Amino acid sequence: MKKPFFSKWFVAALFEMAGVRIPLGPGITDEIRPAREERVTLLEGEQLDESNATREEEDEDMDYHAETVLTILKPVALTMIFVVWAVKTIAGGTTDNVQATIAFSEKSDDGGGAVLWKSIANAAIVLAAIFLTTVIFVILYKYRCLKIIYGWLMTSSTVLLGLFGAGLFYALLEAWNVAMDDITCNFQLEINFSTVVFLMWNFAIVGVVAIFWHAPTRINQGYLILISGLLAIFFTKLPEWTTLAILVIIALWDLFAVLAPCGPLKMLVETAQQRQEPIPALLYNASVFVMMANPNEEPEEPEPNPKRKGVKLGLGDFIFYSVLIGRAALFDMITVFTSFIGVITGLFLTLLLLAILRKALPALPISIALGITFYLVTSYVLFPFTITLGSQGIFV
Q: Do 125 and 179 contact (CB within 8 A), yes or no?
């Protein structure tokens, strides 16, 4: 039986792919060779295009992550700067403004052991309150009690902006030695207690509308920063070692709650991902759109990339970062700078791990660990050392 002619083409093509040229008939290899070279050229062109596309995508990813880091670092830095300014203004450069207590107050004549157990007990009470609140929140979200959750969040925001804002306003007036009845506006309208209540009520309501409904992005973010700063200023009134113990315990809790299989925050995130809906919480959204525009063309509106989700940082992270910096502001500005560097470095490392692992990570542990380390080393080693050098007339 005569074999079909196409088998010669098939065998020649196989050998040609292996780099062997065999003559199967007149003109066969001469016809295959140009086709093969054309296919190789096309494949090389496609590989080059894919390589260029991959390189451009990597460059865009680098730009995106860099912008994300800056978008997160700016509000964190602004919150800490606001807290430092308020604490230094209210304290007047002294450290005797500690007024708030939780359950056990630290006294100047307490020994090291008494201070340790009191601070741990106070921190345990705060942790119990946070644990109970988190569990209730997760249960409400699991059973879709969203109206209760949003009512809870709105009420808390109103209290923080209204009462804590009024408290900060009054404390600033006291620090500036200004009586409330002495404040007048351009129309000679005396600002008394009822006027302050009216102003703070409107300030709080506008904040709730901006956070939970609709407002320009800057106003929304500004109110979130103010809420974090106001609560952080309150925590700076706690004793030093109680504050440090709270920060350590909350950082450990954050580690467990986010990463442990039974962690409540991990369960909350997984539930939200399964439902494909946002988490109803006070979160600072750092969504970034990186635009690549041709200078000869008009810029177009950026379109969100579904593969890139904006980094969201809870306001609790803002608060506890600022608590540490506010506590350092009661000591010395050198401690403020070193603690600030520690917190920002830890946050940068956390964002780096987030870009690598691509899953929800706790934002407190690394920043709090570095911040407290820098705080203790500066306040108990570096600052006394510089004072000693200065008293001896030695300047480096």
A: no
User: Which one is catalytic: 30, 182, 317, 332?
Assistant: 317
Specify the DSSP element, H or E, that contains 314. Answer: strand 311-314
Do residues 164 and 295 lie in contact, with contact meaning Cβ atoms separated by under 8 Å?
A: no
What integer pLDDT is reported at residue 49 of this predicted model? 58
* Residues 27, 35: Cα–Cα separation, whole Å: 13
Contacts of 244 (CB under 8 A, 6+ apart): 119, 327, 372, 375
At residue 283, what are phi and psi to the nearest 5 degrees?
A: -125, 140
Most distant CA pair in the chain, distance:
116
Q: Which residues are CB-contacts of 266 (< 8 A; sequence separation ≥ 6)? A: 257, 258, 259, 260, 360
Our CA dihedral for 20, 23, 28, 34, rounded to 10 degrees, sits at 40
- 378 near 334, Cβ under 8 Å? yes
Mean pLDDT of 118-124: 88
Summarised one tens digit per residue, pLDDT across range 62-89 is: 666 667 777 888 889 999 999 999 998 8
Taking only the tens place, the pLDDT of each residue in 294-303 is 334 343 444 4
The question of whether 332 is a catalytic residue gets the answer no
Which residues are paired to 314 by β-bridges? 283
Closest to 288 measured CA to CA, from 65, 62, 56: 65
Q: Residues 59, 63, 182, 254: which is the catalytic one?
A: 254
CB 259 within 8 A of CB 132: no
Looking at the DSSP assignment, which residues form a beta bridge with residue 311? 286
Which of 276, 280, 255 is CA-nearest to residue 266?
A: 255
Please compute the mean of the pLDDT values over residues 324-346 and round it to a whole number. 91
Q: What is the pLDDT of residues 183-228, one digit of tens each?
A: 544 444 455 677 778 888 898 999 899 888 888 888 888 898 899 9
Distances in whole angstroms, Cα of residue 176 to Cα of each of 166, 170, 200, 255: 15, 10, 20, 41
For 143, which DSSP code?
A: T
Are 293 and 206 spatial neighbours (Cβ–Cβ below 8 Å)? no
| 254 counts as catalytic | yes
What is the rounded CA–CA span in Å between residue 172 and residue 176? 6
**From CA 320, how far away is CA 232, in angstroms rounded?**
7
39-53, 78-92, 306-320: range with highest mean pLDDT: 78-92
What angle is formed at CA 199 by the lines to CA 81 and CA 193, rounded to 5 degrees? Answer: 105
Q: What is the mean pLDDT of the chain?
A: 76
